[in-house]
Amino acid sequence: MSELQAVRGMHDVLPEELPRWRRVEEVCRTVSARFGYEEIRTPIVEYAALYSRSVGDSSDIVVKEMYTFTDRGGDLLALRPELTAGVVRAFIQHRLFQRRSLWRLWYYGPAFRYERPQKGRYRLFHQYGAECFGSPYPESDIEVILLAAAILRELGIREYSLQLNTLGTADVRSRYREALVAHFAAVRDHLSPESQQRLVRNPLRILDSKHPSDQPFIEQAPSILDFLDAESRQHFETVYTALQAEGVPVELNPRLVRGLDYYTHTVFEFVSPRLGAQNAFGGGGRYDGLVESFGGPPVPGVGFAFGVERLLLLMLDVAAESAVDVYVATVGMMEAARAVVSSLRAAGYRAVGDLQRRSLKAQMREADRLGARVAVIVGESEWQRRSVIVRLLSDGTQWECSLEELPKNVRQALSR
RNA sequence: GCGGGCGUAGCUCAGCCCGGUGAGAGCACCAGGUUGUGGCCCUGGGGGUCGUGGGUUCAAAUCCCAUCGCCCGCCCCA
């Protein structure tokens, strides 16, 4: 441990990687808006108890991955491990359901989980997500998934599949759960230690064990699809056929269960072969009982989240951005150069000058490196004539121009 | 939380197995080659507690132990 090092699993984003981050943020924002979704921002810190109620106290997220602390007033707080719970809390606290019967919301921000860092898995990470409150119908499931798919398309992420499953109603889910427990309990001693644990804590999760010794029993396990009632089946099929019709690369995966306790009916995960062990870069589903379990009215909802760091791993490269439009170079004429820089900034250009009193050669090199397309050279002899040199960095052509004409010349030079 | 791999200049890495020649290369950075001009080229230069701490040894970047960090798998999930 060194205090001169960022906390384990938490990373600085340096200027050169920011264009990629901004791209993700911009695409998420504009595509969300295109779908009629509105942004919501909630605190990074909530009462820890909020997450036991939403994510579920059987989940590792709550049991061993939350950053919790007591504040000076003695309240047990948590750095949010995900953002849906906070959004639902705000939805209820502000009685949004009384103002409108349908809400389309999106969020973006940091979340924290105390986990062993790996590629695409960090202790401080970012999520973008969307939630649609107020519709129990498959049309809303379809909409949020299409929103996710539209973002991926806009980001140039093509190589992925959408794993789709249903958990049915709470009733279906609990009957299926019983069947699974019966199935796995019979072979309990042959299961991996982790899965034996899960058998009592969260039996559904045995289905996504990667442990080799569990595989045969998972393959023989009953399928959720055999437990669905007619309505659940209808809901699921409507979602599936619509996504196919829309060209989403959807694959049915009856073994897909999600870690969070609150899901009902549709669950899905976006996976990519290019991510390694953390192959899911987004996931979500329907959570019809969640708002009510928080003490709100029985408002149905459906939503998803992307892991921003994982999107970044999949995104195509973003062209590097230039830092400035105009570089003002000079040999010794510091005050004159500063005045020129100020006038260019006032005219709206991104302009910088030398702060290190370096040679003209070094200043020109810096101009090139910063991506400036125009250099303005403030020289002594021209300055006496109240003029400067304007140089195009692209081909090296340059000319003298009066101070009055400078803004016009710069504008023309930049538009070439 | 468990298992494995790796940590040498800002970056990518060689040297480590077979301890001992002044700790290196490419890229990047700085300066000069152009009294006032970038990208290419040439010349020179700066920069390293060899992750950190301890041990073995006459001697450790090189061997041993611990620790921190990164990576991979389990786990978890975005």
Largest sheet: 8 strands, mixed
Structural class, from helix and strand content? alpha+beta
In what range is the share of β-strand residues? Answer: 15-25%
Low-confidence stretches: none
Strand order of the largest sheet: 1-5-6-11-10-9-7-8
The percentage helix is: 25-40%
Radius of gyration: 28 Å
Number of strands: 16
Shape label: elongated
Count, helices: 16
Span from first to last CA? 53 Å
Could you tell me the mean pLDDT?
92
Protein traits:
416 residues, alpha+beta, eight-stranded mixed sheet, five-stranded mixed sheet, 16 strands, RNA-binding
Q: How would you describe this structure to a colleague?
A:
This protein is of the alpha+beta class and 416 residues long. It is built from 16 helices and 16 strands. An 8-stranded mixed β-sheet has the order 1-5-6-11-10-9-7-8. Helix 1 packs antiparallel against helix 6 and helix 6 packs parallel to helix 10 (230-245). It is elongated. The model has no long low-confidence stretch (mean pLDDT 92). It binds one RNA strand of 78 nucleotides through helix 3, strand 6, strand 10, strand 11 and helix 12.
